[in-house]
Amino acid sequence: MEKQIIFIIVLLLTLGIFGYTVSKFVGYFKLTKPFPIRDIPKRISIMLKVAIGQTKIFRLPLIGFAHALVFWGFCIVAFGSLEMIVDGIFGLERSLVVLGGFYTFMIAIGDVFALLVLISIVAFLIRRLIMHIKRFKGIEMKNISKIDANLALLAILYLMVSLLGMNMFCYLMDPGEYSGSFPVSIYLVNHIVPLNGVGPDGVHFWHELFWWSHIVVIFIFINALPYSKHFHVFMSVPNVFLCRLEPLGKLDNMESVTKEVKLMMDPDAAFAAPAEGEEEQMERFGVKDVEDITWKNYLDSLSCTECGRCTSVCPANITGKMLSPRKIMMDTRARMKEFGPRRVKEGKGFSDEKALVRNYISEEELWACTTCNACAQECPININHPGLIVDMRRYLFMEESAAPGELNTMFTNIENNGAPWQYPPEDRMKWAEELYMNKNV
Questions:
Q1: Which fold has domain 255-265+283-423?
Q2: How many CB atoms lie under 10 A from the CB of residue 107?
Q3: Could you report the per-residue pLDDT of 47-68, keeping only the tens digit for each?
């Protein structure tokens, strides 16, 4: 009973802290603009293929397979974690055994995946700490990001070690009962880790130690995730479900601008000034700060794994320019972290004299983007970096006329001449006047 009470207190504390954190993020989402959700069946199909099937991660086959094992392993091991919570609340032991053959299968495959995940995590640590993979570096990758990644990997590593340890001592407590439940753990006990000399009291002690340490690390991990890049553990699947359905090369137009252009091009359209008091509130063109982004843009930033695959294929970054698509997502997340709490607390009139554009993301970074969509194509969780970049450029150009000189010249020519070149329409064919042309064709 004492164990049960302690567990319930720890569980309630964990859920309380996590609930408070979630409420803060909900407040930040409310600061952003709407994002329409359409075609649910197609979204479910993409989610199953990309998020659950991990198909995009396999573009790097070996390490992609290791990452897929970690994801699938977590999904399977979660069954055992759920059982531990039920056991802790009701003071039971192996409470889900009533599920029969399904239970035996899930526990056995969870035992196998614990070893596979452990091996994968060791490979990830070797890549980060010894091999120093290039895409894990960059001006945006501060020491805190590296420490964050390594601590998360070590936490997952311990979870797998404690799970195998718990299973080994559980088997020793009743070999007949669990003989088919833990294939890896039983092999370890019989061939790798000799535990025959441990008495009944020792077996019980070590089982309890692994049980409690495993569940406590899970609870700490859950509450640490929202402040870590590993928040994608929760966010990646919803983000893929909500991903862009239109072709990546299609740029979204602002409805207000489209409406004005159609009026300008319609010779029969008559302009009528709105009645007094019915004037529409001026809409901001593009994105200046995090209040101008959609909630999907913010979800993208929270889902970013900082894996660097986007930056590693960005032609602007490869050729030495400042742009890093990964940094765009990290800066958006960081800006909301700075701006959101005070904006929620002080209300709509709050301003800290900063903005996402310039204070976090420079003009040089934004204009370096070629909108080739290589980053969005490569991202394993379907983040749409170019859409946000274009919106920030739209603000710079349409509200501040802050564009490179070449672009300003081009737009002026389009406005005056209907073409990017500095020639009137009647002069467009002068280049062909001296050419021989077969008039019979």
A1: Fumarate Reductase Iron-sulfur Protein; Chain B, domain 2 (1.10.1060)
A2: 24
A3: 999 999 999 999 999 999 999 9
